[in-house]
Design a protein that fits this description.
globular, 64% helix, single chain, mainly alpha, Ribonucleotide Reductase, subunit A, RNR-like, 383 residues, oxidoreductase activity, 16 helices, binds fe (ii) ion
Length: 383
């Protein structure tokens, strides 16, 4: 009998001292700890080892040289006071102060202690989404290794898989060692990544991850880098962002080439994917679990927040979304996706007010200027 088999036990049976339990986890434990996803894409083994794509070769060589060691190059002995380091100027904290003054507000008894706690919970929630998103990126990069037909892209995606492993690991470690309990993955992010892992077209993994989610991540990491003073987190974010800039360049280079070969009908699918994943995603919900941990029912507080947002004109995602679209739109222009099919995507984004970013700087060569690892190493060598 195993520890999980209770069918023949009775309550008054004496407990027998058991050895180590090697039984498999129960179904419920499996459900809680794993999510199973079916990948519908075919894997490709290629016999063409010629290095034909010079820019990808350069990017791969750069990736090898700029890999960093998460154990030796970050100072994990740094003392972090989570409450002091949280962003107390977070737009949600400001909105909560307004909400507290509204009639019948569930926050009416809140004082400084609660606002400080809210800032900390928001920080944990955000870093938790980074952690889960990084694991998703690791799996999508591994999928690209298997499904992309070009050897140079397989090599590069392998380095990205390692980068994403390191990112997942450092966010998990930072949460665990410095801040406290992580939050579950937001259903919005989970759906967004699951779709990429299931799709049977290899380029959709790129389009969703390297072009959309990584542009989103760069904007979010940049936001946190600007607001935190904590040296370990700052360095960690700088190093992660340097890797991400390469990943976005990888997407632009690969898809820029591939999309030249596709028919209008095939490209229409990709344009629709972009509309679906950008305009629709603007209306995503915030993290209800933060409110639960603060002892407030999300449904009670949400309508008041909407009101406070309207009144103040201040939304927690406005500046962040600007950062996101300022990267996404020019990157998409580079792929030639805006104007095919009679400018279908341009028209959709124009209506959503996003075309002001068309000629913002794209991320195709950011990685050259943004090599924080090489900069730090050069400074250390110079003494
Ligand atoms: Fe990453
Ligand atoms: Fe990445």
């Amino acid at each position: 009998m195993t520890a999980t088999d209770h069918s023949s036990e009775t309550d008054d049976m004496p407990t027998v001292a058991a050895g180590p339990d090697y039984s498999l986890p129960s179904d419920a434990e499996m459900q809680a700890a794993f999510k199973l996803i079916e990948d519908n894409a075919q894997r490709i083994f290629t016999w063409k080892y010629d290095r034909e794509r010079e820019q990808l070769v350069t990017l791969y060589n750069k990736a090898m040289a700029s890999q960093w060691n998460s154990v030796t190059e970050l100072d994990w002995s740094t003392d972090v006071d989570p409450e002091r380091e949280a962003n107390h100027d977070h737009a949600t904290v400001h909105l909560a102060r307004r909400v507290a003054e509204m009639p019948g507000s569930p926050l009416k008894n809140w004082g400084d202690k609660e606002y400080r706690q809210l800032a900390l919970e928001l920080q944990k929630a955000q870093l938790s989404q980074f952690m889960h998103g990084e694991q998703g990126a690791m799996m999508v990069a591994a999928k690209i290794v298997e499904t992309v037909p070009w050897i140079d892209a397989k090599y590069y995606a392998s380095t990205q898989t390692m980068d994403e492993a390191r990112h997942t690991e450092v966010f998990a470690k930072y949460l665990h060692e410095k801040l406290g309990e992580a939050y579950p993955m937001s259903p919005f992010l989970e759906d967004q990544i699951t779709v990429l892992l299931e799709d049977d077209r290899w380029d959709i993994a790129y389009l969703g991850m390297q072009i959309i989610i990584e542009s989103l991540a760069l904007a979010a990491f940049g936001d946190m880098l600007r607001t935190t003073q904590e040296p370990l987190l700052k360095k960690l974010l700088r190093y992660v962002m340097a890797d991400e800039a390469r990943h976005v360049a990888f997407g632009i280079l690969s898809l820029g080439e591939y999309y030249q070969e596709l028919t209008d009908a095939e490209l229409k699918d990709r344009q629709e994917f972009m509309v679906e994943n950008t305009i629709r995603s603007r209306s995503r919900a915030s993290t209800p679990e933060v409110w639960e941990r603060m002892g407030v029912k999300f449904d009670d507080v949400l309508p008041l927040f909407m009101e406070a947002v309207k009144e103040s004109g201040r939304s927690p995602i406005n500046s962040f979304q600007r950062g996101f679209f300022a990267k996404l739109v020019p990157n998409t222009r580079k792929l030639g996706l805006l104007d095919r099919n009679g400018g279908f995507l341009r028209e959709q984004w124009e209506q959503a007010g996003l075309m002001e970013f068309e000629f913002a700087e794209d991320t195709a060569s950011d990685y050259e200027a943004y090599d924080e690892v090489a900069k730090d190493r050069a400074a250390a060598a110079a003494g």
